[in-house]
Amino acid sequence: MKTITFIGNGNMALSIAQGLKKNYKIEVVGRSLEKLKKFEEKLGVEIEKHIMDGFHMQDKTVLLCVKPANVQEVSKLLQGQARVIFSVLAGTSLEKLRTNFNTQAVVRTMPNLAASVNRSMTTLTGDINFQEEAKELLGAIGSTRWLSSEKEIDIATGLAGSGPAYLALIAEALTDGAVKQGLKRDDAMAIMRGLFGGFGELIQDIHPALLKDGVMSPGGTTAAGYGALEDGNVRSACMDAIEQAYKRAKEL
Ligand SMILES: NC(=O)C1=CN([C@@H]2O[C@H](COP(=O)(O)OP(=O)(O)OC[C@H]3O[C@@H](n4cnc5c(N)ncnc54)[C@H](OP(=O)(O)O)[C@@H]3O)[C@@H](O)[C@H]2O)C=CC1
Ligand SMILES: O=C(O)[C@@H]1CCC=N1
């Protein structure tokens, strides 16, 4: 079994490790043995645990899962030259990764929180020689799409990386709206979850505009509600959200 070396033991590392644990041996490098043990407990399989300071990554296949602000601090603690680093760090350029880390190759990846349920939409870019390996590795946690530039992965970060948070806002707001009109909270939550489950399937094959046309009856309830969303500038706010997320990715 091939070994994947996670550097970082946070949420994203755990979500990805969940998807990989059946087909790969997992090694995790962190700052505290206690946290590494908790990671192992949550993952439910035995892992190799290593402290970051002085860790040798010679010829290893690394999944870098720390925060963008940790790059310099973390890189100073590591020794040896990695075979390849797959980074999940938002907005952190290939150049910055190559400058800080001793590695033969670098690929940027942008998974999302659905990695924990094997349904991540992960975008990829970087060393073209590792395109197939990146697709196979990150394909274990959902769908992948290789992009041809860093600009594109920074934009996609706003769409699919941050996207679950934006959709969660919509989900919570619609549920609150139903509660405000008198629906019980438990019922509203169950209905909202059913809505998102079915919508997730539908949107795979139908253009959003056609899906909307199919729901909206002349003079009906959907048209009434849709008008309120347009009055509230939801469309424009969604487009601004992607713009602001992209802008932020470039600053990281
Ligand atoms: N959350 C998400 O939905 C997504 C996140 N990402 C990216 O994933 C990366 C990790 O995010 P996430 O897992 O959510 O964050 P977490 O906060 O859960 O994990 C961060 C990890 O970095 C480690 N760390 C923090 N500070 C330092 C430091 N100074 N030196 C060494 N290690 C440090 C933490 O160690 P310790 O446990 O010891 O504190 C922890 O293991 C980020 O770069 C983010 O851009 C990408 C896509 C989606
Ligand atoms: O908010 C962030 O910066 C990270 C990247 C995408 C999702 N979470």
Automatic annotation (TrEMBL):
Keyword Secreted: no
InterPro entries on file: 6-PGluconate_DH-like_C_sf, NAD(P)-bd_dom_sf, P5C_Rdtase_cat_N, P5CR_dimer, Pyrroline-COOH_reductase
Pathway: Amino-acid biosynthesis; L-proline biosynthesis; L-proline from L-glutamate 5-semialdehyde: step 1/1
Coiled-coil region(s): none
Record-annotated Pyrroline-5-carboxylate reductase catalytic N-terminal domain positions: 3-91
CC annotations in GO: cytoplasm
One Pfam family this sequence matches: P5CR_dimer
Catalytic activity: L-proline + NADP(+) = (S)-1-pyrroline-5-carboxylate + NADPH + 2 H(+); L-proline + NAD(+) = (S)-1-pyrroline-5-carboxylate + NADH + 2 H(+)
Keywords: Amino-acid biosynthesis, Cytoplasm, NADP, Oxidoreductase, Proline biosynthesis
Gene3D superfamilies membership: NAD(P)-binding Rossmann-like Domain (3.40.50.720), ProC C-terminal domain-like (1.10.3730.10)
Domain Pyrroline-5-carboxylate reductase dimerisation: 150-252
SUPFAM superfamilies listed in its UniProt record: 6-phosphogluconate dehydrogenase C-terminal domain-like, NAD(P)-binding Rossmann-fold domains
Localization terms from the record: Cytoplasm
GO molecular function: pyrroline-5-carboxylate reductase activity
Enzyme Commission code(s) on record: 1.5.1.2
Gene Ontology terms: biological process: L-proline biosynthetic process
Binding site for NADP(+): I7, G8, N9, G10, N11, M12
Task performed by this protein: Catalyzes the reduction of 1-pyrroline-5-carboxylate (PCA) to L-proline.
Family of the protein in this entry: Belongs to the pyrroline-5-carboxylate reductase family.
NCBIfam families per the UniProt record, alphabetical: PRK11880.2-4, proC
Name listed for the protein in its UniProt record: Pyrroline-5-carboxylate reductase
Organism: Sulfurimonas aquatica
Lineage of the species this protein comes from: Bacteria, Pseudomonadati, Campylobacterota, Epsilonproteobacteria, Campylobacterales
